[in-house]
UniProtKB/TrEMBL annotation:
This is NAD(P)-binding protein. InterPro entries: NAD(P)-bd_dom_sf (IPR036291), Sc_DH/Rdtase_CS (IPR020904), SDR_fam (IPR002347). Belongs to the short-chain dehydrogenases/reductases (SDR) family. PANTHER family: SHORT-CHAIN DEHYDROGENASE_REDUCTASE SDR (PTHR42760:SF103), SHORT-CHAIN DEHYDROGENASES/REDUCTASES FAMILY MEMBER (PTHR42760).
Length: 365
């Protein structure tokens, strides 16, 4: 009863008050009962619009700082002024890291490059593999070898990468199911460029919207052969070359979030199983080969906007994929680049056997 009377008294007092006074007097009780509405109200009234930005500079070159004083001043704000527009690069440009720039970089950034490394990239003719090849070229690779089953595209992309960067780039028309061809091609890389430091295995195919009960076993075997056996044969050939030379190395296997979660709504048991196999293969090789200083890690992308998914039959499903992705988009073709360079570089020296999911948040739900 006493509480009800107090509430009624408070309500009549508040009704008689001018607005700001209501805000002050009511603040404590409202905070107790409905904190969110209070902060929302405050945010609306607190539009910050300063006319200048006070700055303090502690810099040996700044006036007065050498004598122990800092430099204090204010920058006027022009109404409506914006950050300067970023310098526009030619969209398709690939700028290799110059030796001179590298030598001036701080040690942390130097370790995040692939300066001087020989890099083999499978599936580098197009899509994610091609973009990772470009990223490695920009990050300092000494030479790049593209292994791909597509003669025309592979040759074209190698010529283009060389023409854009001036770097030595070779294309090997190799099917990742063909162990002998892989061994011959890897030996040629060793002979021409030296032992590879890095393998990025991006070659792969996808079958989806096939129910398990009607899956053709021959198709199933083919996909496993390309995605899983291919990852093994490539790792084996490059790993052996690294061991023979006593050279540390990094192997990056492109798996998929499908190796960890089951995609929705399409049925694709074989693809999912193949990528789970790639992840476990990566962990097993990492454990076995740590003693040779060979690191093995996986990148597991979510849905990426590549030719692999540019199929009209998938248009309706893409809307569902986006709606289930917190970032509400598919990954761009270059969204793996930073992670690829990091895993290839010495900056990830203590990382092996990891599987890094890069999916715009898809697997969070
Ligand atoms: N695109 C996605 O949404 C997505 C998502 C997760 C994982 N991945 C994986 O990323 C990798 C690259 O995918 P992408 O989207 O760039 O595909 P993509 O089809 O654009 O490129 C794949 C490349 O691999 C080559 N390739 C295919 N079979 C081969 C074989 N037997 N031997 C040698 N080369 C072969 C192709 O010629 C092609 O150049 C694949 O392993 C794929 O499973 C893709």
């Amino acid at each position: 009863m006493a509480a009800a009377a107090r509430t009624a008294r408070m309500a009549s007092r508040l009704a008689a008050m001018p607005r700001p006074a209501i805000a002050r007097a009511g603040a404590r009780s409202i905070t107790q009962r409905a904190a969110f509405s209070v902060s929302a109200g405050r945010m609306k009234s607190e539009v910050i619009k300063e006319t200048e930005v006070p700055v303090s500079v502690y810099n040996p070159d700044a006036k007065g700082v050498a004598s122990g004083n800092s430099d204090h001043f204010s920058i006027p704000i022009k109404p409506g002024s914006r950050a300067p527009a970023p310098i526009e690069e030619e969209e398709d440009a690939v700028s290799p890291l110059q030796e001179k720039v590298y030598s001036q970089m701080p040690r942390t950034l130097q370790r995040m490059t692939v300066m001087g490394k020989v890099i083999i990239i499978t599936g580098g003719a197009r899509g994610l593999g091609n973009n990772m090849a470009r990223a490695c070229a920009e990050a300092g690779a000494k030479a790049i070898a593209i292994f791909d089953a597509n003669q025309e595209l592979g040759d074209e992309s190698a010529a283009e990468l060389h023409q854009k960067t001036g770097l030595p780039v070779s294309f090997f028309k190799v099917d990742v199911r063909d162990g002998n061809a892989i061994n011959a091609a890897v030996q040629n890389v060793v002979d021409v460029y030296g032992t590879p430091d890095v393998l990025v295995n991006s070659a792969g195919i996808a079958d989806s919207n096939i129910k398990a009960e009607t899956y053709d076993p021959a198709m199933f075997r083919r996909l496993i052969d390309i995605n899983l056996t291919g990852s093994f044969l490539m790792s084996q050939a490059v790993g052996r070359a690294m061991m023979a030379a006593g050279k540390p190395g990094s192997i990056v296997l492109v798996a998929s979030m499908s190796g960890t979660v089951v995609n929705y709504p399409q049925e694709q048991s074989c693809y999912n199983a193949s990528k789970a196999g790639v992840i476990q293969l990566g962990k097993s090789l990492a454990a076995e080969w740590a003693k040779y200083n060979i690191r093995v890690n996986c990148i597991s992308p979510g849905y990426m906007d590549t030719a692999l998914n540019k199929v009209p039959a998938l248009d309706a499903q893409k809307k569902i994929w986006k709606s289930l992705t917190p970032q509400e988009r598919l990954g761009a073709v270059d969204d793996l680049n930073g992670l690829c360079v990091f895993l290839a570089s010495d900056a990830s020296g203590y990382m092996t056997g990891s599987n890094v999911i890069i999916d715009g948040g898809y697997t969070l739900y």
